[in-house]
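=== RUN LOG ===
request id: a7f3
mode: sequence -> structure
chains: 1
length: 356
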Amino acid sequence: MKILINALSGNGDALMFSPLLPLIKSKLSDSHNEVKIDMLVMFKSVKDMYHNNPYLNHIYHIDFLKQPKSKSLSEIFSLRKNNYDVSINVYPSNRTEYNVLNFLLGAQEKLGHNYVHTKPFRLEFLNNKSVKEIPNLHNVLQNANLIKKIVRFDDEDVKGLEIFLSENDKKNSEIWLNKINPENKIIIGFHAGSSTMKNHIHKRWDKDKFAQLGNLLINNDNALILLFGNEFDLNNKINDSLEGKGIIASTDNYMDSMARLSLCNYFISNDTAFLHSAAAFKIPTVAIFAYTNYKELYPWQNKYELVRKELSCSPCFYNSPKPVNCIYTGTSDAYKCMHQIEVDEVYSAFKKLISA
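=== RESULT ===
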């Protein structure tokens, strides 16, 4: 059996499918049936993240956003020649283009979701096997419900997120850590950034508050702060406020950053791919949420403390091609779900996490 996983979203959403790969492989394989699982990605960092995954045979990267459409179509029809039995749109994939792509790939069974917030032109009917999106259900289980169309299992069989590091990445990160942390301080990772797509820059907790929190952790808890993410200007500004006591940990090599992240003792982050990567490495986390739905995106099968404001209007963002738009835009209350979160709340969450 040949299966193609369409993981066309960013790293966080793509990572949410990782617990399903071993289930597909183990449940469908037997002495008479060899299961080959390939993956199609749009972002190189997703390809890097899955490069060492033992359940995948091949990862195809099509740069839909930057290359000419004619080249993308040519590569799609080249994939079609693989004669896949099943193709799967990873949740969430609620754009018209994703459903058209799944159709063009030509698999016998085309799996996708029917979304709560949708319109006829999304062409969800192009997927001949589909399940309904369930509000307030974690993304991992949304994927699990879809996979049950081809595999029998119970939700209890779904394990944690997985990122596989190479031995070389592990070794290099350990050498780096020994150099920057000779005093063996507690290591706390920060991710203060976020994607800017769909206006998600508003998921970011204020950089000055991150800096204040960092200084508390340095002075009160003898912590070494590692700053992650490719928002290097943002991280440099935070580190300036830390008087250079933090370390810029991320590099241009995504898996190098992941290997360094895996060495953290704790992680504090906005709702981003780095938060979910920390969960994959079983690092206890403090998760700072604004308008996204924590019930669908909490750190999966990991120790965590959640910091958010319970407002009548939040969470207000749902899976849709539309960018986020606060109902208070243009007033001082815009994105108050994030702006009203204070340093002492996040620090208290950390102390609760570390005491547990």
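=== NOTES ===
The chain has two domains: 2-157, 169-355.
The first strand starts at residue 2 and ends at 7.
=== END ===
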